[in-house]
Amino acid sequence: MNRLSNNQDWRLPVDRLTIISLVFFLLAALIFLRLFKMQIIDYDNYLQAAEAQHLVEKELEPERGNVYIHDYQTGSEILYPLAISKKYYLAYAVPTQVKNPVLTARHLATILDMEEDTLLKRLAKEDDSYEPLKHKLEEDVKNEIEALQLEGIRFSEEIFRYYPEGDIAGSVTGFIGYQGDDLVGQYGVEGYWQEELAGKTGTFTFERDAAGQLIPSAERIRADQENGADLILTLDRSIQFTACNALKKTVLKHGADDGSVIIMDPQTGAILAMCSYPSFDPNKYNEVEDYNVYNNSTIFEPYEPGSMIKAITMAAALDLGKVTPMTTYEDTGSVEIAGYTIRNSDGQAHGIKNMTQVLEESLNTGAIFAARQVGLDMFRNYFERFGFGQKTGIQISAEKAGDIRNLTYGKEIFMATGSYGQGFTATPIQIVNAFAAIANGGKLMKPYIIDEIRYSDGEVKKSQPQFLRQIILEKTATTLSAMLATTLSAML
Question: Which among 18, 224, 275, 305 could disulfide-bond with 421, CB atoms 3.0 to 4.6 Å apart, if both were Cys?
Answer without folding.
Answer: 305
